[in-house]
Amino acid sequence: MRGPWRAALALALHIAFFVTPIALVLGLLTIAVVTFRYDHTSGLKAAAAALVVGAVFAIGWRAVLRSRTRPRGVALDRSEQPQLWRMAESIATSAEAPKPDEIRITSEPTATVREHTALLGLRTKGRYLELGLPLLAALNVSELRAVVAREIGRLTSRNKLTALAHRTSASVERTAAGLTGGPTKWLFNGYARLFTAIAATTGDDLELAADAVAVREAGTRTAVLSLRKSVAVEIGWREYADDYLSMATSIGHAPDVLLGFRNFMSHPTRKPKLAERAKQAIAEEPDGRTRRRVEAMKRLKTADRELDERPAFAVLRSPRKSVPELEDRLMVDGLGERMPWPELARQAGAAHVAEQAAVLSSAVEQSGLPVEPSIAGVLAAIHRGQGRDLINPVLNPGLSPELVDQAAEDTLVDLLGCTAVDALICARRAHHELDWGGPSPVRLANGQPLDADRLVRPAVADPRLIPGLHRALVNLGVPLHHARRPAAEPEPELAGIVSPVQCAGSSYDLLVTDRGLVLLPSSASTTKRLLAGTLARFREAELEQLGELAATPVGELRERPGAQWVDSRDVASARLDQERAGWSLSLELYLDEYAVSELDDELVRDVDGASELVLRSSADGVEHGDPYQGLGELMGARMNVEEPLAAIE
């Protein structure tokens, strides 16, 4: 069953969701009134039952109905950006769809219309058209029109039942995801699964109708191209954020985000690669939805539209002024004044190699070898065959034994190469150069490029070539006495929390980081945890407490009274066992004079001369973040899992 009939059935079920409890309570009250006329005691009991049932439903409804859609991004005033508003309103009028109440710019590489609803979608209070800043950078005006038409087209009133059912389905799914726990969540999740199963095809129907609107507004070719290009924008934005926006956060300066992303997307090396990856992503979709949409759009007969190839941000008034203002309002707090991309790449590259040089000095210091942390000292140690021992302190202790040799070579090549580049930069003989096609290359003062990996790797792989590397570095003008102060121990980054776990008869909150485990004495009583499992309000309070823990620096948490620290470097092996009541984690530890863990003696037991720490899950435990994935990454090859890790989630 498809189309309006399925939508009508879904809406009938949704109306029954509200009517049935009301009818039940009214029925009980009617029974109470009738019974009271003949038997006061029985009538009062029936009235009390009606009140109890009504109170239960009221509490459940309160938890369900308080969910709301909050606007995101930066609102664009109609008087400040009339051209964009006119585009959206003309599309809405042509499509016979409701006009958006607000247009907002977000930092996400997507466009969508979000609706703030009441009664789980039955009534609409507001509509927000959200346009991602990356789309304004990567698309042209015609493609932007197609994207806006596609989103507004989802609200088309030509099939009111389908639109209403889809809006209700989205509200039900959003509410189910927002509930935190207790019987309300359990019961509502069952209803949500039933409703979304019935309303499953309404989204597809609206999607096809929305694509038809995009074709009418922008033409078939532009509508199809905008759909494919939107996929490329999402892929490109992730890479742009990882490879380029990360430069801004590393040195604390704001870049020109939109112009930078436009340069990134239009670079002659990246553009065809992104188009090919988008094409592959569409081809590999399990359900083939995008392919079907493209084929349906191609079958539509429509007149060609005049192509407007101006950048999409041309629809903004005074983009030279308005775009930087939008970026500043969307930017991460704490970034300093704006910096041009070439200078930002230069400084970010210099900061990176300086950090790596400090890591090399730290490895030399921790290795215990009588080696100077300078480039000359490291070269001499490698020549003596001590390269593996030199770099061992900064290797991941969870690596598989067969991967250690290659990891040691790669790490030493990277750190030594970065240190050589750092020395050249400090001597003003090299700098990093912005390249939108790939990583920032190193350019020597004479204009020649420098590939540090190609320069250093042969000698690291074969120490007999160290004298040749020594001569090459001298010829380049590298000061061989160069060294950085050893890097401080990096602050552990939290992966997730499990609360509570049992250890030696006591309850702890387990914090999994990328460098070890933190155990904090749990303050939650058994009664409070039982309430958290049955009442959503207590579960919300518990999740808020875990959120506060996650927001606190790990270094501060380790200083709290009773806190325990298990350093990853002290873990010899780990075993995760699936048990009937949950799981247990057994850690074999090296607790000798070189250990850096901080554990009370009563938590660790001696087993055949080895130290063992055992953690057990609790039946009423809750989680924050992704502690199990973090635990797997932390332990690596040292972890022996008796059951698939997913079984304990």
Can you lay out the helices and strands and say which pair or pack?
Layout lengths: L3 H33 L3 H26 L8 E2 L6 H14 L6 E5 L4 E8 L4 E10 H6 L2 H13 L6 H19 L3 H17 L3 H17 L1 H32 L1 E2 L2 H10 L3 H14 L5 H11 L19 H12 L5 E3 L2 H27 L7 H9 L3 H5 L9 H26 L3 E3 L9 E3 L4 E2 L1 H10 L4 H11 L17 E10 L2 E8 L2 E6 L4 H9 L1 H16 L2 H5 L5 E4 L3 E9 L2 E8 L15 E3 L2 E16 L1 H9 L3 E3 L8
Parallel strand pairs: 2-4, 5-6, 14-18
Antiparallel strand pairs: 1-2, 3-4, 7-8, 8-9, 10-11, 10-17, 11-12, 12-13, 14-15, 15-17, 16-17
Q: Fraction of residues in helices?
A: 40-55%
Distance between the termini: 36 Å
Bin the strand percentage. 15-25%
Q: What's the total number of strands?
A: 18
Shape: flat
Mean pLDDT: 85
User: Which class of secondary structure composition applies to the elements?
Assistant: alpha+beta
Number of contiguous helices: 23
Main sheet attributes: strand count, strand direction, barrel closure? 9 strands, mixed
Low-confidence stretches: 525-536, 645-649
Report Rg.
31 Å
